[in-house]
Amino acid sequence: MEWLIIGFIVMMVISPVMWLKPSPRQHRHTQLRAMARDNGVEVARQDAPLHLVRGKMPAYRLRYPGEHPGPDFVLVRDAVASAALARYVDGWRFRIAPLRPLPETAQARLKALMALLPDDVLMVQSSEVALTLWWWESGTAESFAPCVDAAAVLRDSLGGYADRPGVRPLAVPSVAPEIR
């Protein structure tokens, strides 16, 4: 009987510790986010800019350099897009198309990225500030690493191709004193 009581007490002490142990899913997400951060990607959970998605969604953001802003566009996967939106490539539609056509190299890199993305990437968004991938983190760090590399290459080719080039600060003219 004493052993049964001791066993019960030990189980009562160990059970809260087991609850604190991360699940395999949490462990995979931690590895995935660490890989992304190591490659210069900012990871945040934000309100998704999709009508069918409620709540916070992971956003993987690659920032454009401040002096080279990017174009504005939003690509949405067919599964969450309206049929009225313009088709870009198979499975993707433009919710917001770029104001001017993207360069050929950027077009090719964007199409290559679209082909690599897992099925749960629902949206690719570009703004003057960053290129963002909105997805549910279904893959592993090893399987998503090529997507991060392709997104970084795309970001580099889109940098400086803003739809509305930013306003630069006014230059103060150099005024030399007149010599009399």
The amount of helix comes to 25-40%
Strand order in space, largest sheet: 1-2-7-6-3-5-4
Number of strands: 7
Number of domains: 1
Low-confidence stretches: 167-176
Could you tell me the strand content as a percent range? 15-25%
SSE topology sketch:
Elements (H helix, E strand, L loop, with lengths): L1 H19 L3 H15 L3 E6 L8 E8 L9 E5 L8 E4 L2 E5 L7 H13 L4 E6 L3 E6 L5 H18 L22
Antiparallel strand pairs: 1-2, 2-7, 3-5, 3-6, 4-5, 6-7
Helix pairs in contact: 2-4, 3-4
Keywords, please?
180 residues, alpha+beta, 7-stranded antiparallel beta sheet, 36% helix, 22% strand, membrane, transmembrane, Preprotein translocase subunit YajC
Structure characterization notes:
- It comes from Vreelandella subglaciescola.
- The chain crosses the membrane at residues 6-23.
- This is Preprotein translocase subunit YajC.
- Helices cover 36% and strands 22% of the residues.
- The protein has 180 residues and is an alpha+beta fold.
- It contains 4 helices and 7 strands; from the N terminus they run H-H-E-E-E-E-E-H-E-E-H.
- A hairpin with a 2-residue loop joins strand 4 and strand 5.
- The protein starts with a helix and ends in a 22-residue tail after the last helix.
- A 7-stranded antiparallel sheet has the order 1-2-7-6-3-5-4.
- The protein has one domain.
- Mean pLDDT is 85; it is low at 167-176.
- It is elongated and about 80 Å long.
- It has helices at residues 2-20, 24-38, 104-116, 141-158; strands spanning 42-47, 56-63, 73-77, 86-89, 92-96, 121-126, 130-135.
